[in-house]
Amino acid sequence: MILRRSFRAMGTDVELFLAAAPGAAADRALDAAEAEFERVEALLSRFRPDSGLSELNRAGRIDASDDLLAVLELALDARKRTCGRFDPTVHDALVAAGYDRTFEDVAPEGTAPAVAARCGGGVRVTGRMVELEPGTHLDFGGIGKGYTVDRAAAILSAAGPALVDAGGDIAALGRPDALGWRVGVEHLTLALENAAVATSGRDRRRWRRDGEERHHLIDPATGRPAASDLLRVSVVADTAVEAEVLAKSLFLAGEREALAAGVPAVLVTEQGRVAIAGGLV
Length: 281
Hints:
3-stranded antiparallel beta sheet
């Protein structure tokens, strides 16, 4: 039997699926997976003034918690591997673009000049101590959500095959039947087992300022919302964190480079054309 639970967290709809018999053990696993979203969001949200991330952005230097340190190290490694396309120091560029509050509270229309903000700021980690270069602030955005999805899936899977979906960031562990967890991506149906999917695109979190459309995917090279010939990218990877990193970097790369990268992905161009990459069928 597939048990299901839905709730809101991290500014999106979250669904938990567990292949298990109803009962106390399954309920405890669902409760624990849901609680993990609240716990990690309270630590990593830039919109919560009492979070560890907000404290770091204010003070510029803190003794980091285990989760903040883990996500920061994942993000810095991703920045290195993607040659800066994935960058946790896009905070100020997001604010400059108009994403200065939770997305539910971002006005769909408004006036504000288009301003670029510096990205690529320095971050130093010494043991548990994290120090930001002056003028540098962090946003964990997608990678924080991917991290939480991976953790929640691991918690849930202790009670049986599990899938966690947080607004399209998906992690599936085990399989509920011979085919695995079925997930729809554009016109494909993927069968997932011990795999993850993430989507990055400019068609969901977007708004307009001074008649110009803006979105949340910042190009660190320009400090502004990215100009790409892609509308969205969905990537299949081993973990939700890795899928997040690859989806963002392929979106910035554009169609030609994304197709050549060999990453299992579904690309949707700005004209609506769908392209399949990396051997997905």
